[in-house]
Amino acid sequence: MYTAKLVTIKESFTIPGKDRIIAVTLNEIEDTKVIISKDYSLTDTYIYFPKDVRLSLEFCQKNNLLIQKDLNGKKIGGGYFDENCRVRAQKFGGVRSEGIIVPLHFLDYLKDSHGRMLEALKKESPGHTFDRFGSYRICEKYLVKKHNYRASRFDIFLDKLDNSRFYKLVPFLRAVRKNIYLVKKSYQNFRESFNVYSYRKDFPRHTDTEALKFHMRNIPAGTRIIVTEKLHGTSGQVGKIVDPSLKSRLRRLLTGKSEYKLQVGTRNVVLQEGENCAFYKDPFRWKCAEKFKNIEDGELFSKEIVGYDTNGKPLMSPQSLSSIKRDISIKGFKDPMIYSYGCEEGECDVYVYKYSKMINGEMVVQSWEETIRRCKELGIKTVPQLDDFIYDGNPSNLLERLSPWMADEKLTTSTIDNRHITEGVVLRFATDDNSFKVYKHKSFWFGILEGYIKDSGIEDDN
Length: 462
Fold this sequence. Notes:
The protein is of the alpha+beta class. 21% of the residues lie in helices and 29% in strands. It has nine helices and 26 strands. The strands form seven sheets. Strands 17, 18, 19, 20, 21, 22 and 23 form a seven-stranded mixed beta sheet that branches. Strands 1, 2, 3, 4, 10 and 11 form a six-stranded antiparallel beta sheet that branches. Strands 15-26-25-16-24 form a five-stranded mixed beta sheet. The protein is globular.
């Protein structure tokens, strides 16, 4: 999702009043428009970078993509990237652009150091994804608090070896390093399995949900798809999980009974009792966890927390509408826009989007119907269900079906609260092996506003 992809152009469209640029769609990615120079050939293969990817600083410098400014900070030339090198969703002449595409020759500056890899890339078919050449990273997921990737000395050594007559040793050395990493990771997981306040097998870390547009063609025709609203809040988990501490394990050996402990986690951190996460420094997560005090042993709920903290501060940063009002009507919305989801200041609410149960020693994700049933028993809300249908295998029909709940052509509001727009939708369906797959589809205008927040240096990374 945060990688470069080889793509070809599907269709091109002129933009009224713009004689130097055109809009194009791509064969390899559905529902994606990109603005390109009119001089680009429509038959070549290009490199596509999606929004919210950070390009390497060297890549931008070598291709004159960085904005050049004078001593007073005024733009005097160059490209359109600042020092963050982040790819943004933007509008040009009223047409949306969700990423960038560049010619393959933008990588020619790597010929001397990665010549063989570059030639191999040019032989790849459209749809091939990559994010690095040996030690050299081309792009990565943009994170506010993370700076551009720096290669290790060992990676740089492998690059030099790869361009020598000993290049055949490189795959072997990379495999050895990978195995060493796996051994270290296994040891780390073993140690953390005794730590109450760490993610582990029965209290797994929440992973990023992949974007629908990159996988739309992989959904088989005849699949039953359930659509729910994607909420803009802070994610978290709460569950009654086996106490992994050494004392508890010894007591289990003596008594034969497992001891369970209510645990609360953020996206990246398992909180100690009464501990507030570093980003918010507020006890609202524990207040929300009280709603789950009657859950059964071995149950785990993944949830979105929306609204405000206990001091009345919005959980998600308010979004200024001043930057988009020239492109779309903001009538009916307060500026800045607050994602309140029906909550008043000082209130927060919880919406469950995933329910798992421990079955035969494995944490198993339950069906959406079972998630709704169990949450109703507990008096807990689930994210709003918007649709339930059988997919006909046509991506265009799927996007048209989703459009009423997307803030793409207009600022469509959330189904929970009409004071703010919707973030987008989530599609969930069962796979052939009876597991569950989930894809997200964010609204274009939400992506624009979210980008301005990231530019200001604010990001919930807990």
